[in-house]
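Progress against Task 2.4 (sequence-to-structure conversion) is shown through the following example record, which the project officer requested during the mid-term review.
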Amino acid sequence: MRYFIRAVKYFVQLMVILAIIIAILIAAKVVDSDISKIFVNGYDSLWQIALMMAAFAALYPRFGYSSRQAIMPGSDEEIAQELDKVMNAFGYGKEQRSDGVLSYRKRAVADRVFRMWEDRITVTRFVSGYELEGPGKDVVRLVNALRDA
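Structure tokens generated for the chain above:
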């Protein structure tokens, strides 16, 4: 279900960006304001573009979100302090959850808005470290920072 929600959010984001770009081009008089003259296939191009954006949106969650393991030897208290320090350095704050899962969210509202509220990093403890799950590029940066700490 999470995959589907992420795909829908990404589809909406792509369509909004495309609409803004077209509106800017029309306002700057770079293209004509008639849709049938902007695109080769006229109004039929709109559903074709939407279908293409849906295909991209359907693939994005598969490649945009990942989980990686950070191997961190030491006691639980030392590792937890180091984890909190690294997460704070990258702009993440600890999230209070009722289900006992350790997770972090971006503190900056702008970051959360631009990521469409898909900014949660879920942290799971395993024998020799932590497993981080969330947006792929952030997870890679955080795991590398944890390894270097």
